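Chain A, query sequence.
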Amino acid sequence: MKSITRSLPYAAAALALICASVAQAEIKRISIGSNRQGSVFFMLASGFAKHIQENLKIRSTAQPHAGSSVYLSLVDNGEITLGLNNSMDTAAAVRGQAPFRKKLDNVRILARVWIIAEGLLVRGDSGIKSLSDLRGKRVVSDVKTLVSMGIITRHYLASGSVTFDDLVAVKSGGIVKNVNMVIEGRADAAVVGLGMPAVRKAHATIPGGVRFLPLGPLGTDEYILSAPGMSPYTAKPTKRLPYVTEPLTLLSIDTYLNAGSAVSNELAYNVVKSLHQNWKKLQKAYGPLRGVKPHQMAPTNNSAFFHPGAAKYYKEAGIWSAGHDKQAMAISKQVQ
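Chain A, predicted structure.
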């Protein structure tokens, strides 16, 4: 009875995707949604498209958009075959939370491909060293094309018992603009990716460089994991991150390669199998992939269901565990 109960979420997932039962041979073209050209998402989407075309012999292209929140609905309805989306946006989409007006029932995870450490960036000469120092300061509250940034910022601030009522909230048009706003003095702090090229450039070019604020005393692992799509992260000093001079408690979000209603179980299985078996080769070509080991492509704190075809491969590869079944049951309750 226990095994039957555990299988229910994925049986439901397979039923929800029954419209995708078209054979792989009938798929003539694969499109992979990404952020704008020049972004890491676009680079990865282009790399995956090249790999799929060469290995599965299906014409594949990257399709750039203004932001990853924008094209999730297109993945869901099959207008775009696959999409690179962060775990926060994916969580909101399948639960029907803002900015999505309804649940995107067809969105399924194929693989985790990139782990993005996030933190609150400030100028090194700002005198701001903790979250409590942000009271009365200008902090980027929302990024128009990336809804998850607003959620992350609120969660981050709350770890130090700080809310937007304590701050001057300002809005941004993009994640790179977050960096620019801080550097140019139009904002005092903003959530950005720890390893962004724009951050490294800023640190090297402005007096005093930049720093990241650690989470506050309430930022425990349990607190971070309470938000679907977030994970704990400890940043350590490295040559690549000269602005990290001591271990910092931050948080991270995952980047998923997602599939929608156009993807059959067979196609999902073959895409995941090809990626997994060639992952080390892909890591050599695309740096952001290096933070995810082959066995970590299927995390157990996933924020949405895995595609049944992907789950089938992970089981055959010995990656699937009881933790995946437990998470599937938890997601089933959250998306009802």
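DSSP finds twelve helices and ten strands in the chain. The longest strand covers residues 108-123.
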